Amino acid sequence: MSREPAPPRRRAAGDRPDVLIVGAGPAGSVAATILARAGVRVRIVDRAAFPRFKLCGDTVNPGALGRLQSLGLTVPVDGALPIHGMVVTGIDARLGTGGAPRAARAVVTGSYPVAVHGLAIGRRELDDALLSQALAAGAEFDAGVDVLGAVVRATGRGAAVAGVRVKGSGARRQTIDARVVLAADGRRSRLAFELGLLRHPVQPRRWAIGGYLHGPTMPAMGEMHIRSDGYIGLSPLPGGGLNACVVSANVQRSLGNPEAFLMTALQTDALLRDRLHGARLTGRVTVLGPLAVEPTGVEVDGLIAAGDAAGFIDPMTGDGLRFAIEGAELAAAAVLRALAAGWPGVHARLRTERERAFAGKWRFNRLLRTVVSSPRAIRAAAFGSRLAPAIVRGLIAHAGDVGLVRHHPAGAAAPDRSPRRPAARASSAL
């Protein structure tokens, strides 16, 4: 859905929000919706105008859809493509002498339960839909706002974030004060890195190179092809074609020509080259890296982080959106506690709740990253999957967060939770 930019709304002096959310992606928009429904005055800022292009995996797994539905949030299903499971392969499949793969193949297909599915949907459409629902709940939005840094002031408990410094249209700089700042500005969060909340771990240090291919067709399944030097993710696109992404630690020399790197990786893979014969790139190729960021343990009153700004896990299992959505729920609850009773205990409780919600998936993802980093482990996993494919199918269901799906199939319409106050208009500048 498209949204015509509205003229800037005139704000009176002292007209500050209760909560300023930096970043209008899924985490920011979901948190904004929850807070606005609770009667909190919310303002969202983002450097981009929406709808905007963002290359991602372009899929929402069943568990993430279930979380959205439980919040009464809808996903635009018109034009989206149901995803019914995942195909996993695990070999060292680079071409050897005579074009033959150098190791035996292991292919496991895991289908989701009946009436449960994910969705293939572009982030442009998904993010815009979630932002529109935040505005309908009463949040305000300013596009074209670049956050320069945090405003930190002394309090009785020490230093605390009291707002942000921004640059808006016409390079105009100003300060936005807020009782709480919620950083949802992604894995490269300027606020989180400035305040020492995030760091890049020594390992893993992988990059992702991805783009859209037209020409080939593929079944309505996600695909994960684990290789000795990383992995290749494929997902079908609504209307045909596919999203292809190569994640590896061995791409630095190829970053000058990411298009050639991506196509070479696909065309020299023994299990993919025939299927992708004749495929052509459309649009630009995106490079992200190093991918992983982790929290340092530093916590600052006045600021809560959500989504990738709270820590980004190498997205092997396609559950990044589930982390963003559920993490936004937890962050919004923490914000409400801070607004009601101040900051003592807020960060500690949020840390405990995140650990309870995500610890199992964090361990699962770390295990998969360890497997991908070891050729010996790859060969052992390939052998084990041939002997016990049911185990891999169980892992596929776990990766898709199928256990979070409750009483309605993924992609179904969510219950109506109309806002209790008029919607605010989106403005295009400060």
Numbering strands along the chain, what is their spatial order in the largest sheet?
Answer: 6-5-15-16-17-14-18
Helical coverage, percent range: 25-40%
Contiguous uncertain segments of 5+ residues: 1-14, 407-429
**Main sheet, how many strands, which sense, barrel?**
7 strands, mixed
Overall shape: it is: globular
Order of helices and strands: EHEEHEEEEHEEEEEHEEEEEHEEEHHHHE
Number of helices: 9
Number of strands: 21
Rg calc: 22 Å
- What do the pLDDT scores average to? 80
- Structural class determined from secondary elements: alpha/beta
Give the strand content. Answer: 15-25%
3D architecture notes:
This protein has about 425 residues and is of the alpha/beta class. Helix content is about 30%, strand content about 25%. The chain is built from nine helices and 21 strands. The strands form five sheets. The protein has a seven-stranded mixed beta sheet with strand order 6-5-15-16-17-14-18, with helices on both faces. It has a six-stranded parallel beta sheet with strand order 20-12-1-2-8-21, covered by helices on one side. It has a three-stranded antiparallel beta sheet with strand order 3-7-4. The model is unreliable at about 1-15 and about 405-430 (pLDDT under 50).
